[in-house]
Amino acid sequence: MMDKETTTTVSVVYAQSEMLLKEVYLFERIDVCAGTEAMKHMKCIAFLRPIRENVELLVQELRNPRYGQYYIYFSNTVNRSDIKELAEADDQECIQEVKEFFGDYVALAPHLFSFNLTGCFQGQRWSTAAFERSVQGLVALLLSLRKAPVVRYQCNSEPARRLAEGVSQWMKREAKLFDFRKPEVPPLLLILDRRSDVVTPLLNQWTYQAMVHELLKIQNNRVNLSQVPGLSRDLQDMVLSEDNDEFYSNNMYKNFGEIGSNIKELMEEFQAKTKSHEKVESIADMKAFVEHYPQFKKIQGTVAKHVTLVGELSRLVGAHSLLEVSEVEQEIVATRDHSDLLKRVRSLIGSSKVRDIDCLRLVILYALHFDKHSNSDLSGLVHLLKNRGISETLLRMIPAALDFQERKLQPNDKFSADNVRAFTKKVIKGLKGVENIYTQHVPLVYDILEDLLRGRLRDNAYPQAYAPSDSGSILRYQDITVFIAGGVTYEESLSIYKLNVANSTVRIMLGGTCVHNFSSFLDELRAASSEYTRSGRRL
């Protein structure tokens, strides 16, 4: 028995077939199970968030129990008053166990987690619900990993400061829970603000995982292709898990160009196995076929899945001129050659092949980088968007993006607009001699972590909100958790993966309120701008 959120938490870690192997035969949601028949011969394992709604539903369940025994596990700390209420409702003494099992987050990969929250900011502040959920999720993460970290935050960000203080207060209040054996170097929780890097969630992507999320959307490691015509039902809902899909695990961070050749190799392997199974003439042949049939079927499913995915990605790339769009995106963030880029952006906006969403993407990137340029023609580009028929709702995302970046960035800070451009120019070496012009952009979180790993992250820019009593001065952290308030991207996940590979003695985890693509980031901008408008700006 689970709730909506714990169902997600479990489903990204275990397939239903794996649960069946552990003798779990029935799955139900606590909020939709009323009226189902009693099965007193069965035991019920409840894994629930300790929120008021779930406690009330459990009380109702225990007053009229449908199962013989109940083992109740809460995904975070639970109030004693709630435990007392459950005990009072358990007249038939069905409860066998109540425990706190800290899993109040979605583990998407060994180095990536999310809380599946969008629209975290209201104006310049946290939304109350998103703030409380983020504190609870981070506390559960730390407790599940048995970490009592130093907590640092981005000094120019009020949301980062408030979240760091919220987690720190919880750690102090629940000091006994955080009384773990202390490592020689304490772990670090570093809290950043999405506003520091608005560019990363705006870009088209060209590595496999990030590209699938950008163009098709990955939700809790699943891809829904029901909108693609002509697909069989078993290909309309796909699971992308690096644990259960060797091809995906080996290729999720590869460039799209490499995926095509690797798909071809997978096809050739499958065809070779198919031919070997065509001749079943003897008992030995039959035995070999039966023994290898599960693996054969698995390869068949993998081939069908990835051929379908890559085929749909290729169709979208060709149909909507995404190579041309992405090249201009990368040049906008890499150069100040304004006049040539302005012509190319105008040309793409005038193309019927380019999607409205990509035209908007280009204009937002142009606005972020050339809004203050002496020859900026932002108003002209907005006029072209209006002529395309793009709605006022979407057009409002342009000033919303400018607000989102500029409102929180202080002058002379590392993350000021000029320094963002300077950093981008530094990491993008120019187009000449670059292996792939479409994957040049490097997220700012990569630069921050490189400074941290080299002991160069300034204390005044990233002050401490909490430190274990005996932590002292630390120059080299070895266990780092980075959390970005406002959401992360799969491009940033790739950066963390690369840092982990390059630094074998360091373990870095990345988390965020959600994992963005461009569409979800527009939702984030919309929520953040709902209570805040740019004074005096007209587009």
TrEMBL record:
SUPFAM superfamilies given in the database record: Sec1/munc18-like (SM) proteins (SSF56815)
GO CC, alphabetical: cytoplasmic vesicle; endomembrane system
Subcellular location: Endomembrane system
Membrane protein topology class: Peripheral membrane protein
Highest taxon, organism lineage: Eukaryota
Family statement: Belongs to the STXBP/unc-18/SEC1 family.
Protein name per UniProt: Vacuolar protein sorting-associated protein 45
